[in-house]
Amino acid sequence: MSDGFFPEPGVAPLRGGPTLRWGVLAPGAIARDFTATVHANTDQRVVAVGSRSAERAEAFAADHGVERAHGSYARLVEDDGVDVVYVAAPHTEHLPLALLAIEAGKHVLVEKPLATSAEEGRRIADAARVAGVFAGEAMWTRYLPHSAVLRQVIDRGDLGDVRLATADVGWALDDDPPQRMTDPALAGGTVLDAGVYGFWFAHFAIGAARSVQAVGTVLPGGVEDQAVALLTGDEGRAASVGVTMAGTNTGLGTVVGTAGTARFLDPFVFPARFAVRIGADEHVWQDPTDLRGRDGLAWQTTAVARAIADGRTDSPEHPIADAIAVLTTIDEVRRQVLGTRQEDR
After folding, report:
1. Model confidence over 92-128: pLDDT tens digits?
2. Among 82, 157, 249, 308, which residue has the least CB neighbours within 10 Å?
């Protein structure tokens, strides 16, 4: 258990708060994990699923107790029984499917990365603003209790002035990787996939990057399989981010300040422990819930439901401007690592 040093997370409870009727676009692996934890651990409900294949939609609905299956994306966003659309498709479909949902007057939560570029992200934000609907990125790690607690620790000055952050994220590809990871036409590569977590963590710790220096390696097909970036922010802050799909790394992150250090003891992408050391004293925070791994996807849904119930069209925890700022950094990392290959697309 955590000691009395740490504040309460203050996150929206998984049960007992406002609820939404969710529609899922694209019934792949992340959609399966999302729906399973939402139904098992929250009062939110996935009531409809949409796919370009009616058979896939029907199979997903049967497997997960979803009421309605639609054989097209358009029919899902037109479903009057859906309040909010969760876009779980590959990266290159995030923009068109988010715009489809927004044009239908639906709130939308888009899997990370929000889009394949900052410009695409701005198009989503602009469309949502005109339509007056909620739009956000499903950066689920930001909504986990450990992120809420660490945010408060940083903001109340326990670490002093933050000067440095580090993040390492990456999982080795198996022998038969999905095409979306290796195909440039599908925005493949590690920087937009695992990398979005690392660049989000850097932004979370030091703010928006003002300069980027990146190196990496590129597979013969033209996507980056690893990258290391040095980011500098305001007031002398800096961050290093390492991302890879050539192997599996530690998944750990640190935040270093003039008065203390926070370091994760488990991969920070998932529900995790972290330690804060100030002088000779060390305090360890541990999530009091029993959610582990991708079960943590549940937290973002209750936060979105609370925001929408409060009349918000943006997330107070992870504003869409933050997602776009992270994509701005990613754009530059990919430009430097891929060089002319990126420009030729």
Report:
1. 999 999 999 999 999 999 999 999 999 999 999 999 9
2. 157
Q: Which single residue is written with the structure tokens 């009395």?
A: 4
pTM for this prediction: 0.95
Q: Where are the beta strands (DSSP E) in 6-128?
A: 21-25, 45-50, 68-70, 84-87, 107-111
| C-alpha–C-alpha distance, residues 193 and 30, integer Å | 13
Same domain (yes/no): 216, 295: yes
pLDDT band per the 50, 70, 90 thresholds, residue 176: confident
Q: Residue 79: its pLDDT value, please? A: 98
Burial grade of 232 (CB within 10 A; 0-12, 13-18, 19 or more) = middle
User: Are residues 190 and 284 both part of a single domain?
Assistant: yes
Contact present, 289 and 26 (Cβ < 8 Å): no
Residue-by-residue DSSP string for 286-316: --SS---GGGGGHHHHHHHHHHHHTT-SS-S
